[in-house]
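Think of the structure tokens as a kind of shorthand, similar to the way a musician reads notation: each symbol stands for something richer, in this case the local conformation of the backbone. In the example below we present two proteins back to back. Begin with the first one, reading the sequence and then the tokens, and try to describe in your own words what changes along the chain.
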Amino acid sequence: MFGKAYIRNLWDYNYRENGIAFAIVFDGIQADVPQCTLESSISDPLVGEDLTFTATTIREGGSNMVYDVIPFELLYADSQSPAITVKVDDIEALCVGLNCDYTYTIGFGEWTAQTLSGKQIMLTGADLPTENFDIIFGETSCDLNTLASDGTNAECTLLAFPSAGSWNAELRSNLGNIPMNVAVTQIDVVGSVSSVSPNTDLNENGGDTLTITGTGFSTTSSTSDSGRRLNGRNLPAIISNNVVTLSDGTLCTVVTSTDTTITCVTEPLNSASIDYVNGYDITVETYAVSATGTITATLYGTKLDSDTVTPNSLSPILKQWVTVTLKSDYPETLSNTNQFTATLVCTDVDCDYTPTAMWINSVDDGTKSMTVKFPGAPSGNYKIEVTSAA
């Protein structure tokens, strides 16, 4: 038995006259050390009133623990097969009997061709699964009630129209993916645009919500690091895989999308090429594939601008009422505050201010004006963007 021992005061008594408690600590001795006891000397006995001696073994790891707790990273098992690592809430877990082995299943089958007609997808090959499988194509999967396979042809009806782009299918079974022959040719899917609403009286200042119907639209989006700034930091931008543009290059920012419908909000049009007569073609690109067909939308006959903002200079720290007056020929009737939204937007180049909604308190159709609450903002130059729900 190797190791070392040292004395540790347990400080059970504040005064030595009342007693003393100490422990003999055996360090590095990996064995159950016998109980030590104290006995008074025969030649020079301890003297005191009602002297008592007690002794116990302190087991910091519990009554069943002789060795120190073994760090997890020092535990190994004699694994005869590839092993997996298991974590629960990012904490490594032990497998039953320290056995995390698994065995590979030898792949089977191969599909060599794919065909698509509308939502109907078929894969042809050999030794294809006849149950417990699914087909993924163009960001959509099968209606499980339509799956069918005879081992040579596996087919189904997709839940949605596939997104425009060039795609290969994935054939998945409960034992993993079924391999695809390298000679398989991708299927090109081209979307279509059939209608847009509204398609008249669009505002050249932007802010119109357009609903576009067709096929081949993507239902997913991606993120970018080049989003807007907030409190001095960049926020990720959510980027739709559908891009909607007007014929002058103006974007219509996608808000929602399904496989057949897109809603987007128009940006201000290019002021150098405003066309009140011929209107603007609207196109959709999904994964850089342009949809077939374009829809033409026309503008309102004149520019819809506000006329004045009063007052036009405000304290940055005070909340104040501001009156926004529209041009006298504004075509809509100002009937209620829910008819419009007002947003305070900083126009300085290096401004970190996040566009903020302003409360509209009242509207007056007689003067074509509305009263909004300025919420306070850092010093700078700002504009108030007013958008009509119509």
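Once you have a description of the first chain, move to the second and do the same.
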Amino acid sequence: MPTEATIEAVVDPVAAAAAKVAAAAELAAFNAEMSAALKAAMEHPSPIAGTVLQPIKFTFKKDDLGVKRPTVELALPVPTADTVTSMLADEKQRNYLLSVLADQVYLQARQQVGNESSPVNKQDQLDLTKLTMEYIASIPPSERRGGGISKETWADFFKDYIEVMPSVTGKNKEQVENAGKLFVARLQPVKTQKKILTFLQSQLALWFTNTQAADDFAEVYEFLTGKIEDFLKRDEAELLQNL
């Protein structure tokens, strides 16, 4: 007679596999329905005057039970440049715009204050040239968003990266960890080393293609790819200036 443990060992994998298949089918149906609704929305002008529809993705992390809500993509009404100009004529809307800009100044200052290698503690240490609207607007969007990625998210990304990459690349754990540490350091240690940046660019693409948590770390991936591209272009620009 099979024991209870033996029965569980047989039944549980079957049930788990069936549940996985059912979940995949449910997710596929959800994605198909969401894509159809999004496509239908994007085929029409924005219902709100002075805006254009832009598709935006909302991603979610796994909860304590390991359950993750599927990514949601929606068409959002985003104000046009003409609308922003007209908002300046209305006091409430003008004050709101100013508060949004003030938030961006705060976020950039926060990065200086929170810099682990050289944190700002006094007014005269603050680099005001990096708090102007001109400078902030010149920062690549992925880099601006990167400042808002939490330490927990970076730690989770590192864990996922070193779990995925050994089997994908054939590299040992230490090699994979070294690359992961450079990513978590926002590539600062190698920002002028073009060959290493190009190599890391390929490794990052491999990881993103093979990880099961692409949606969870889409913001990290976008930030790092943008950072690498920016460093590579900056390097080329500096070389041209010296010729």
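Compare your description with these statements about the second chain. The CA atoms of residues 24 and 229 lie 35 Å apart.
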